[in-house]
Amino acid sequence: MLTTLAVVWSAGCSGAGRPDKIYGAQSVQLGQSAAVLGWNMSVSNLRWSADYVLVDVDAAPSEPAAPHAKPDDIRFGLYGALAHPLEASGIGSCDSAKNIVVQALSTSMPDRLTGTVCLGPLQDRSAVRGVYTYSPRDRIPGTAAAYPAAFPVGMLPTNQNDTGLVVKTTSVSAWRADGSQLSQASLGDPGVFAGNGYMLLGLSVDAVAARYRDDSAARGGPMMLLVAPTLPGPGLSPACAAYGASVLILPEASLDAVHVSPSLCTQGEINEAVLYATVSVVGTHAAVWTVK
């Protein structure tokens, strides 16, 4: 009996203090600190204002002399059972949040990232279980796979054996920079494909939850989708600013299957952005702060 108790106690203690993982992402409770992307970062005070989720972020480099993600490259997203992923770059995330007065996330002090991140709009408050962070520029070596995507057909479904995910397009729409929408007939007019343009891709991402969990743990983090080419800042369209060019595949851990339906934007020189775009699946490091 004593031997059994000792084994149980030992097993319990060996797990004590270990950070939990959600699909390979560090998981802590809101208000706690996590080491991610070369930063010691805490996320706290999750609250709602209108239809936006607000959280306060306080971060400093884990080692000032060591490499760490640039503040402009750090993205935040809502974790939970959302119908569609909702993300934003931390810097500038509150610019489009109307009638919300906060001290927005900034690097006003050297080597310090502080302020509020705004994520929304979203009306389904019950779907939110927390907030995650990652950087599209942080890639785990040896995990990338890239696929062509072209208007008007999008991309073929990927082979699950490539990355453990099946990714396919569910919708494809494209525009010239002047706002003129492209159609199938546009492909026969070479004059249309001059200058800049953009393409919105509706995507579906599916996986077996158990396999994705094991694969993520083995590689050290979840997968993200990246599309290229892209442009910085607001880009060519408000839709591109809203959807972005990356998304983290981090569904709610209690769900029986991985099913994520993001929308992403390619933009730039119209031929590259519309006819020769790329969708990449890449492993990355991430952290998630949960409400409990």
Explain how this protein is built:
This protein is mainly beta. It has two domains: 21-134, Immunoglobulin-like, CATH 2.60.40; 145-283, no CATH class. It has five helices and 18 strands. It has helices at residues 2-15, 160-163, 209-219, 238-243, 270-275, and strands at residues 20-22, 25-29, 33-36, 39-49, 52-61, 75-80, 87-89, 113-119, 128-134, 145-149, 166-176, 196-208, 223-228, 246-248, 257-260, 263-269, 277-283, 286-290. It has a six-stranded mixed β-sheet, covered by helices on one side. Strands 3-4-5-8 form a four-stranded antiparallel β-sheet, with no helix packed on it. Strand 1 and strand 2 (25-29) form a beta hairpin.
Number of helices: 5
Major beta sheet, strand line-up: 1-2-18-9-6-7
H/E series: HEEEEEEEEEEHEEHEHEEEHEE
**Average pLDDT for all residues:** 91
Number of domains: 2
Percent strand equals 35-45%
Q: Which regions are unreliable across 5 or more consecutive residues at pLDDT < 50? A: 1-18
What is the helical fraction, as a range of percent? 10-25%
DSSP E strands, number: 18
Q: How are the SSEs ordered, and which strands pair?
A:
Layout: H1 2-15, E1 20-22, E2 25-29, E3 33-36, E4 39-49, E5 52-61, E6 75-80, E7 87-89, E8 113-119, E9 128-134, E10 145-149, H2 160-163, E11 166-176, E12 196-208, H3 209-219, E13 223-228, H4 238-243, E14 246-248, E15 257-260, E16 263-269, H5 270-275, E17 277-283, E18 286-290
Parallel strand pairs: 2-18
Antiparallel strand pairs: 1-2, 3-4, 4-5, 5-8, 6-7, 6-9, 9-18, 10-17, 11-12, 12-15, 12-16, 13-14, 13-17
